[in-house]
Amino acid sequence: MPPFARKHLPWIFVLFVALVPFMGRLANGEVLGPWDQISTMIPGAEPVATERPWDVLQADACLQFYPWRDLVFSSWREFKIPFWNPYQFGGTPLLANSQSAGLYPPHILAGILHLSTPVAMNLLAALHLFIAGWGVSRLAMALGAGKWSATVGGALFASSPFMFAWASLPSVISTVAWIPWVLLAVTRMFQPDSGLRPAAWGSICVGMMVFAGHLQFAFYGFLAAGILAVVEAVRTRRWMGLAKCAAAVAIGLGIAFVQLKPVLEYSQESHRRAPASAEGYKAYLGGALSSQEYPGLLNPNLYGDPRSKIDVLPFKDVMGFWPMYTRPGANFAENAVGLSGPILGGLLLWLGLRKQRMAKTAGIGVIGIVGVLGAMGTPILSVLYFGVPGFSATGSPSRMGVLWVLASAVLAGLGYGPLRRRLNHAGAKQRLAIGLGIALVVVAMGIRQVGEFGLSVGFGLVPILLMALFIGALLLKRPLRVPSLLALGVAWAGISSSTLVFGTPPRSSVQTNGERVAFFNNRWNLYAIPHATMPGNLASLYRVQDIAGYDSLVSKSVVEHLSAIDRGSPTPPENGNMMLVKLDADENQLIDAGVTKVYERTAQGVEERSLPGLPLAQPNQGNATFKIVDLNTIQIQHSGATELIVRERFRPGWSATAGGKPVTIEKHGIWLLVSGIPTGSNQITLRYSPPGFSTYLGVSAVCLLLAAVGLKVK
Prior knowledge:
Elements: H1 3-19, E1 31-32, H2 35-38, H3 60-77, E2 84-85, E3 92-93, H4 105-112, H5 117-142, H6 147-158, H7 161-166, H8 170-176, H9 179-189, H10 197-211, H11 215-236, H12 240-255, H13 257-267, H14 278-284, E4 304-312, E5 315-321, H15 323-326, H16 332-335, H17 341-353, H18 362-375, H19 380-387, H20 402-424, H21 428-453, H22 461-476, H23 481-496, E6 502-503, E7 516-519, H24 538-541, E8 545-546, E9 549-550, H25 556-566, E10 578-579, H26 587-592, E11 595-602, E12 605-610, E13 617-619, E14 624-630, E15 633-638, E16 643-646, E17 654-658, E18 661-668, E19 671-675, E20 683-688, H27 693-712
Parallel strand pairs: 7-8, 7-11
Antiparallel strand pairs: 1-6, 2-3, 4-5, 9-10, 11-12, 13-16, 14-15, 15-20, 16-19, 17-18, 17-20, 18-19
């Protein structure tokens, strides 16, 4: 084996495990998400037969994340910052939607490299599984684990039920991937003579965690870092480490300030923003694990499988995961905080086989316990709900269990080393018996997986047999340790990822020529494929201007406007973030919003109907045409106008020029009004950029420079 490969084999192993689920997907245009089910909602798409039950959370991979990523990548292909999305809500901020992660460096790189969206999303998913696993292995090593024992822990975290369940919603795994690296930096800040380098490295990891876009999981990362810092300060009596941690967090937030600041400003207008209250807390606890679900912390599949179907009256052929029926809104991904068998086994080994003092790992243990208590909805959650500004607007508290999974994987990485050392002293017959016993268990587990998920022989049985054979080799002969571990990791990742769903985004027959449209949808569905037409942000994917949309951060003004259109709440009971145009919508309001086509699903299919929508560019005299040039730029050709109403949603940050000279732009209701157009000018260019963006960029640049200097200081 080449020296480079031998030296770096542990992280190469974790990378290979992370790539296993995506092998064969990179060249055929498939991407994570239930596109076969979504195809039934897209006008003109060819429906694909599917036997899987409907998973409402996984559908967000198609309805939200794929369109957002497609917009971001396409903008960076032109070296332009994705500030605005002109295709939803009559125009809405894109950068200020944190989960679009428009300034996240891997997204910028994917766009500049002109990667197709499916290839980019698959590669980024694999990359972040690798970053997460590698970070856990490095953290375990810093706490005393051997190289290969730590590598096993990292690989198990990368292929854990939690990471695979959330892989389709990339902002989650992208954010979680940086948490172990932040904890690694905290650990090193409390080592003797650590200097400034760990703090500088930690600030970069904090910045990446925030840039990745899911602020709820980023908060969990900060919470874990704070717990570890306090425990380490008490344990080591090195109080200066706390100052280093605080500086790392401050500089890290500064690095991400250019993206974070627009998000925080826009969040002040969020439809979900409300003061913390006793009533709100009671509703928030509804997303915590119920007492009947606590055993699932040891095995997330204990309460059924999201890929199997069952008949539950009054539903038929619904998902075989029963908590979603006893606790409406529960989902397998939300509950996937249980431990896979190998992680649980490693954790038990750590508890049972370690004889040395456990003080060095106390911080990680406390992080895991806090994660469990938060997921269960214990009073610790009330401290966060009422004490942390904005926490009351976050999603399901069961997600906090990610800290339990992460901590358990780190401790599992510490547990496998003692097992290996004990096996080295065991006799050949004992090792043979253990190897065969484990092999039989693995085969039984694998056959069950094959039976449930209908895996092909090549992708199902072969990895299972490899796993069984090489576990025996791993235990019997030390020289076969590396190939055994490689085969074991590949086999385990192949089996664990068998529930991931891939598909090809379909084409749509909806075509517009600078027109705004509306798709009629009355309801959503938690249990079965909805009878919907172009829901969510799918219009963005096809570059169609839709008056509706779907986002976890929607301004109250958008909700008020759509409420006026719908003559009532635009949200279905099943999803408070989805804004629909309903069947009994006020057509006069649609006309005023510039809607010229509406689409409605009937028994005969999707029917298109025209409306006399007002022009998107309405001059006070003459004619005008409206054209989207890029995500941030609109061009209007006109003949003789001195004033224009532009039906693009107003936000501070819009500017306009006519003939290259600035003209006045102001708010007109919810739209834009351009006035003072000089005589003889026939083209107006409107551009959007968040107010103060250049200042935010300067702050981020200074903080990044401070981090770079810190890396150079010993």
